[in-house]
What we know:
Layout: E1 8-12, H1 22-38, E2 43-46, H2 60-69, E3 75-82, H3 88-101, E4 106-111, H4 118-123, H5 134-146, E5 166-170, H6 173-182, E6 186-188, H7 197-207, E7 219-227, H8 231-250, H9 258-276, E8 280-283, H10 285-299, E9 303-308, H11 313-327
Helix pairs in contact: 1-11, 2-3, 3-5, 6-7, 8-9, 10-11
Amino acid sequence: MSEQSLPLSVLDLAPIAPGQTAGQSIAASVALARAAEEHGYRRVWYAEHHNMPSIASSATSVLISHVGAHTSTIRLGAGGVMLPNHSPLTIAEQFGTLDAMYPGRIDLGLGRAPGSDQNTMYALRRDGSSADRFPQDVLELQAYLAGQTRVPGVDAIPGKGSNVPLYVLGSSMFGATLAAALGLPYAFASHFAPQMLEAAVAAYRAEFRPSEQLDRPYVIAGVNVVAADTAEAARADLAAVRRRLAVGLFGRGRDLSDDEAELLLAGGAAVHVDGMLTHTAVGTPAEVRDQLTAFRRRADADELIVAFQAPAPESRLRSLALTAEAMTSVAAA
Length: 333
């Protein structure tokens, strides 16, 4: 993609397919990041999730470090770290270390959702009220990275003075207004929680206050893509994605066949699954280009971060390449 084209990035959950090991999933994530770098994507982000059999990105900073060793220029980061699960000092040290290893390539996206269930919250030793301290924790973390600690006598080493850029993630008005108040970029999780996209972005842009990091609003919007060489192949991949989501959300840990997954969808799961996939570009490169261009306008986004949802690693790689080629001519302005 050219410098003038719409910035595209990648959101990777390091999915573990049925019959696949975590090691194979991580190897596929390395291949995806290398392909994203080759095709001109701006960044690859990894999301923190816990106790999910189909996701291998729980140790987010470790995965970023591994991918960093196998890439050269593309930005890498968290999309995001669920800050209430951690102390700000720990995250400042982790991402300060990453910045020391890969200078100028590390992003730190922050969310306040737990990313887990109640039992997992207990296993993480997470205080149920910790999300209430999210704004204060963001400021504490930011101060460690700026070398202006708010805790007397305590510095993040590595991390102090690194100024790793922060991004606020969200799917509600809370994240939008916080990002605006702090003058930070805002990334909306419209790839799975589309309901408040337009309202949150509008509020963020209206209330934004410039900061040392950012002088004007910057919006990243999440969107799903299933691109293939033919419309039929894309629709087949989308059908597999819908089955996978239905089983993951409503299968109660069972290993269900495709027919059983279709029964789940027909029994009511489709309403939830299709709601999550509201913002999904599906089809040939030309179709995907048109859909992403329309979504960008609707989202009022400066950058799109794409979750490539095809079920197989090779299909995700092909989808990534086709999307990059299709969007080359789409202007950033």
